[in-house]
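Quick board copy: two proteins, each given as sequence then tokens.
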Amino acid sequence: MVSAPARRELVRYMIDKGLSERRSLRIIAMSASAYRYEPAQDRNCVLKEKIIALAQRHRRYGAGMIYLKLRQAGEFVNHKRVDRLYAEAGLQVKKRRRKKIPLADRHPLERPTLANQVWSMDFVFDRTAEGRSIKSLTVVDDATHEAVAIVPERALGGNQLVRILEQLASTRGLPRAIRTDNGKEFCSRAMLTWAHARSVQLFLIEPGKPNQNAYIESFNGRFRDECLNEHWFTSLQHARVVVEAWRKEYNEERPKKSLGGLTPAAYAKTLIQKAVKLTTDSKAQCY
């Protein structure tokens, strides 16, 4: 079927060749009103340009937010028109898909028999007096229950996490494995590369199942209850001093019922003595 603009052009051509307008319209089977029709100018051109400009400035705004920005600027327009023009311009925001992390082998939560076999790591959040956040990395030895490290920072990424672990390697040594959740810092390229180079296994718990990392979750509860909730930090440096003092007290002075009333540091010494006794006793393998 020939479009209306094409038929108008054909009528004009026939008129130029000498035919009358009435006869040309009769041949083409077109009405005079349709021939003389002048398409109205698109009244949405200006609005469409504003929508495109806002979408280019705020790249993650959808049609609803663009509509609110127009209203904020004093542009009273129907939200349906904004939705239609937004879609016609192809401005739909693409949803960012969360990075899929390959499922690692699941490891049961077993109590190690020696220090530095398995560490557990997690983050605990708090705020200083001015309202700025503190992100504390907590590291616990699963065998001795020692707080290996608590590092408060404003922000912690994969590269900073690797630097902290390297510092711990120089003072305490590294574990055979580290158990964490699926946080972006623990699954970062820097962390994976470091673990491979250092021959440290990474045990990832299943998403939404913190009970699979129970040792660090239990420690974080005590850390928040006995330290974070008991102090009002005026600055990051203040938080570092208080947290480090509490960590030393936790390791060396705080007895734990699950360790037979010993402190984590004292219990770690008993594990060392037990390991030495087993290696020197020739009949140890019989028991």
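And the next:
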Amino acid sequence: MDLRWWAVFIVGAVALGAAVALATMVPMDRITRVLRPLAHVDRLTGMPEYARIARIQFWSMLITLILLLALFGTALLTTSRPIGLSSASRNFEAVHPEDIMLCVGQPVTDPTTAGFLNYFAQHVHTFDTQRIGLTSPSLRVVPLTRDDDYAAAQFSRFAGLASLQHDLDTDKKLAGPQADELRAGINDFSRTVTYDDYVRSVQDILALCMTGFPSFDDKSTRRRSLIYLGHSRFGSPEDTRAALFSDQQVKDMAAAAGIQVNVITRADINNSTPEANDALTAVASASGGRASVYNPAGTAGDSPSGTDPTLAGLLDKIRDNPPNVVLPSGTIITRRSWDYPNVPLIGSLLMAGLLFLSLAVLRR
């Protein structure tokens, strides 16, 4: 839990401490009048009825003091505007659910692609209000959906193609159904398209993935997150054919639609260049996302259908930095701006009710 107005909480706590110190340190006025002496006081105080009344008085004073302190504390928390409670996060996610578009810019048979898809196949079952989708360089493979079982099944299906391709590349024969599964999976994931006057770029793939969000050209009350995995550039530097989208156009699209762009580029690709990585980093930074360079050498090949811990760590960091809400008016709403005083307010009412009942019982 965090507080928006820490100054209010600090002032209130200091005032409480000062009041307690004042009450304990300042001497009380002595009673100057002469009290009437009583005979056999020891007999009176030794009676069971007197001892019972004394215990009731002591515990009633202690309970009243605890309830007063609890009431003051919960009222102080409510006044300080608490944020960051788990209940507030659940309420925030219910009002502003998240859309996640996975964007793959490399072959589906790559072991890194398998690890990427396996990660989300395992985590999709933990989703509550989120929708998730998958886009390849040429197809909308899985449209945004809240059907977790369907999404997990599709991710697992495509992730399994890397293992089949690995067996084929190591001169292992595939049975007829396995060969058909590999062929159909590759075809369902992406199509090979050749052009004479156009060369595909990473920016084009990012733009294609962005169009997978409903009403992508406008902001939404839903949070939007795009996670790209793949090459930082395609083709050779000598290829002078034009692409469709530039870096600035992708930034403008992300800003107009309120999309957080996260990129994980490959460091082991020959045509990867620092300039291309820097361009994608700039796109991610402008949208509030994360950019990382990943080298699967010596890890991904050991388990073609598993998720490398390094890749899983990068994805965890992305998921730990969810996008904010960007309303059509341009207002940005975050978890920190989502006040949720319900818990301390309910506590204050409960303490006040118990204090009222305890005082009523004492009066009787």
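Board note added afterward: The two ends are 40 Å apart (CA to CA).
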